[in-house]
Amino acid sequence: MSLRILHIAEAFGGGVFEMTRILAEGAAEAGHDVAIAYGRRPETPDDVRAAIDPTVELFETPWTSRTPVAQLRAALMLRKVVARWRPDVIHLQSSFAGVVGTTALRRPTIPMVYTPHGYAFGMQSETSVRRSVYRLMERVVARRVDLVVAISAAEAESARVEVGAPRVKILENGIPELDRLRLPEPAAPERPAVIAVGRIRPQRQPDACARILSAVQDTAEVQWVGGGDPETPDFHALDAAGVPITGWLTRDGTLDRLSDATVYLHWTAWDGLPLSVLEAMARDVVVVASDIPPNRELLGPEQVFDGEHQAADFIRQVVADPATRRRLLDSQAVRRRHYSAERMVSEWLGLYEGLVAQVRA
């Protein structure tokens, strides 16, 4: 069955960008017609066309901010795109795409699936009132789509219990580096390095990362690979702790820094299923993470921690003891086998085909 698959992504950057790109390109390679209607966020690549294979059609929308006017303009354009492009299935990527897509595009003849990529009501940096509003919005979205597809067991549990989604399926992320015979060659760093990666924002708890990295910088080079607003307290916390900040790098540049690391510190307050952890696992970099359900799901109990001191002590052990490091890398090598892009794309295509077949029956 050849399908026309439309992805809609307002927050088109970071992990959402990578997952949408990998899935769209994989479906196009399998012979399907694929398009992405996207918004532009600070982390969106400047040249989206150059970053995505030309077999995937692109529609840039007026989603340049989260104001009501921008949402209305995006909704009107999306209606035109759907009317002209005539997809067989629509895949809504992340929260704002879910809200606008289910409001503007509901048609009984076009099945619609929704992937939260980390529920917004899990953001501890937001007020309780905002989080309650986000939860209510997610409940509306969950009842309007044909299926909520979670990227982790933890996200699926939130969908069922906190959102009350009537139809939920788990389909975990995957990356090309973990496809068969495509694992990168491990690097041989000149000296131990411990890094954190990403946009400097509350989700990644830069203040806690600053304390952990500062505590281990006598045993290894430390660095924050990424950028953010220099005027924020989070940026100041890293700077005050003496943690070097690279600023924004290209994706290849970021992966090069990751490849040269001994330990990747992933100290998130909330998450969906983090691609950076999979990328570190593919490159034989030991991951030390905060103890939240998605991180524990990927890494198991030994490499996640509640406390900063315990995390710092563990990092010291990993850096100092090659046997510990090898044992952890062996464990990660077993765990990473499930998270290939080949597996992810195949499962998604089977899901799309099943939904379209139900509509056409």
Q: What can you tell me about this protein's structure?
A:
By secondary structure, the chain is an alpha/beta fold. It has two domains: 4-174 and 340-360, Rossmann fold (3-Layer(aba) Sandwich), CATH 3.40.50; 193-338, 3-Layer(aba) Sandwich (Rossmann fold). Helices cover 45% and strands 15% of the residues. The protein has helices at residues 14-29, 48-51, 68-85, 95-104, 128-144, 153-161, 206-216, 233-240, 251-259, 275-282, 293-299, 308-320, 322-335, 341-360; strands spanning 4-9, 33-38, 56-60, 89-93, 112-115, 147-150, 168-170, 193-197, 221-225, 263-266, 286-290, 304-305. The chain has a seven-stranded parallel beta sheet with strand order 3-2-1-4-5-6-7, with helices on both faces. A five-stranded parallel beta sheet has the order 9-8-10-11-12, with helices on both faces. Strand 10 (263-266), helix 10 and strand 11 form a beta-alpha-beta unit. The longest helix is centred in the C-terminal third of the chain and has 20 residues, at 341-360. The two termini are 14 Å apart. The relative contact order is 0.12.
Number of helices: 14
The largest sheet, given as strand count, sense and whether it forms a barrel, is: 7 strands, parallel
CATH topology of the largest domain: Rossmann fold
CATH class of the largest domain: Alpha Beta
Over all CA atoms, what is the radius of gyration?
Answer: 20 Å
Shape: globular
Average pLDDT number: 93
Low-confidence stretches: none
Run of helices and strands:
EHEHEHEHEHEHEEHEHHEHEHEHHH
- The CATH architecture designation of the largest domain is 3-Layer(aba) Sandwich
CATH superfamily of the largest domain: Glycogen Phosphorylase B
Strand composition percent: 5-15%
**Count of β-strands:** 12
